[in-house]
Amino acid sequence: MSPIRILLAEDHEMVRDGLKALLSNEDDFIVVAEAEDGEDAVQKAMDYEPHVVIMDIRMPGAMSGIDACEAIMRKRPDTKILMLTSYAEDELVKEAIRAGAVGYVLKRAGSKKLISDIRAIAAGDAVLDASVTRTLLEEVREAANMKEASAFADLSQREMQILALISDGLTNREIAQKLYLGEGTVRNYVGNILSTLQASNRAEAAVFAVKHHIERYVDWDSEE
Question: Fewer CB within 10 Å, N or C, the chain?
Answer without folding.
Answer: N
